[in-house]
Amino acid sequence: MNIAVSTTAEGLSMRPQVQWRLRWESELCVAEHVELSEFFQKSYGPTGAFNAQPFENNRSWAGARPEIRIIGYDDRGIAAHIGLLRRFIKVGDVDLLVCELGLYAVRPDLEGHGISRSMRVMIPVLHQLGVPFGFGTVRHALQNHITRMLGRQGLATIIPGIRVQSTHPDVYLNLPPTRIDDALVLVLPVGRPIGEWPTGTIIDRNGPEL
Asked: What is its EC number (predicted)?
């Protein structure tokens, strides 16, 4: 499948300049996984050592591995990242194909520079993948940020009051095999309108979070 993505950051006058590349997971070499691992540790580290821990030992994913990565680069290396993964989730009693969005991060020195708004480069990718909806979960602390980035432009809807069940990416003897999060659900209508999103108060990923 050929997928085109914009290679320039939003706005020619934007500083710093970021170029975006779309990479299928199987295209990445070891050196790129190492670079991504360092990027995620630096990006998630300020929010707590626990959040950076999954990316140790050159690991460039936390739970499920993405299918596609949209990576922003500037003259210092990786500037931003978002991962995409097509999967079936269960919304209430309905099995639904979605493209899950996850592994979203912006390099700490670029926070507040408008880089996150350029994440809209993922929208044409979702359309070319032919999925009915984009789906993700958002921590309550990031609600205002995500609303500014996608919600106010009508690109996404945030649905509160939904619990999301996921499996743990690794098996631990002292932890249950699944967890339930009280997170905000983010839905991007792609091939179908938001009114066709199934009702239900529980979503089951049937796998680990992206």
From this structure: 2.3.1.-
Given pLDDT bands bounded at 50, 70 and 90, which one contains residue 182?
confident
Residues contacting residue 75 through CB under 8 Å, at least 6 positions apart: 16
Element (H, E) at 35: helix 30-44
Domain ranges in the chain?
Answer: 19-204
Q: Which CATH superfamily is domain 19-204 in?
A: Gcn5-related N-acetyltransferase (GNAT) (3.40.630.30)
**Residue type, position 126, single letter:** L
4 vs 27: CA distance, rounded Å:
16
Tokens of 39: 């990027």
**For 122-170, how does the pLDDT look when each residue is reduced to its tens digit (9 = 90+)?**
889 999 999 999 999 987 666 666 666 665 566 788 888 899 999 988 7
